[in-house]
Amino acid sequence: MRSALSIAGSDPSGGGGLQLDLQVFRHLGVHGSGAVTALTIQDTRRVHRVLPVFPSAVLDQIRVVLRDCPPGAIKIGMLASDDVARAVTHALEELPVPPAGPPRVVDPVLRASDGTPLLETRAIPTLTGLIARSDLVTPNLPEAEALTGIDVGSRAGCEAAARALLELGARAVLLKGGHREGPPDDLLLARERAGEVPVASWLAGERSEGPPVRGTGCALSAAIAAGLARGHGLWKAVEDARRFVASALARARTSGPDCRVLVFP
């Protein structure tokens, strides 16, 4: 059975983070392993507290998993602190980079939906280094703007920000449009091969009516990682993952007073 590794924070409500990643892996027929980067105290309304895991424990978690059951793909989510981000970087440096090593999907989690910071500002350069070694980085609009300093209020701005992220070294960028007014179209910018001119594709999205839905970004990046672990190419993995999340959105159910969670087919 193919496997994927999620390196992410724990969400005790199950609406996001490592718990949600493992649900996605299971539903897509991939064995999920996980390395916890932070313990969060949160419910469906907000994040109350963030407790980064000891960096040495993060490093050891990843090392033993990679040694015992090497994954077919790696998804990197919330990192919380610069020390944790450095530990993740150090652990992954022991792997061959793609294509010799497993593909890497970086979901650059900076803040929770309620605005709570989920990554130290001083960790941005370390996160940038992880992005540079990724097959795909999946920022939302605020994350792309924070990482590049480029205004993403227009399609031209989105494409400029995606190019800036690509220039860091990532093979591809999926810029998620859920925070945009109007249709939440995503932008996929990718090179088929090193040195080629990147191809930009706008992928149409539909907005879900009703209360906010938690975990869509986590689910999307995890689903892409699952597709890559199963041997799919990047474009197919992205297309399949978007359909999977759209189906889960259509089934979303209420959890807590004013929030919904994804329900997977």
Count of the separate structural domains = 1
What structural category characterises the helix and strand content?
alpha/beta
Return the CATH class: Alpha Beta
Biggest sheet details: 6 strands, mixed
Catalogue the unreliable spans: none
* Overall shape: globular
Radius of gyration: 17 Å
Mean pLDDT: 93
Q: Distance N terminus to C terminus? A: 20 Å
CATH homologous superfamily?
Ribokinase
Strand order of the largest sheet: 3-2-1-4-5-6
Would you identify the CATH architecture? 3-Layer(aba) Sandwich
In N-to-C order, the SSE pattern is EHEEHEHEHEHHEEEEHHEE
In percent, how much strand structure appears in the residues? 15-25%
CATH fold name: UDP-N-acetylmuramoyl-L-alanine:D-glutamate ligase
**How many beta-strand segments?**
12
Which keywords apply here?
single chain, 265 residues, alpha/beta, UDP-N-acetylmuramoyl-L-alanine:D-glutamate ligase, six-stranded mixed beta sheet, three-stranded antiparallel beta sheet, 8 helices, 12 strands
Reconstruct the topology from this structure.
Elements: E1 3-10, H1 17-27, E2 31-42, E3 47-52, H2 55-68, E4 73-76, H3 82-92, E5 104-106, H4 124-132, E6 136-137, H5 141-148, H6 155-167, E7 172-175, E8 186-190, E9 199-203, E10 213-214, H7 216-229, H8 234-250, E11 253-254, E12 260-261
Helix pairs in contact: 1-7, 2-3, 3-4, 5-6, 7-8
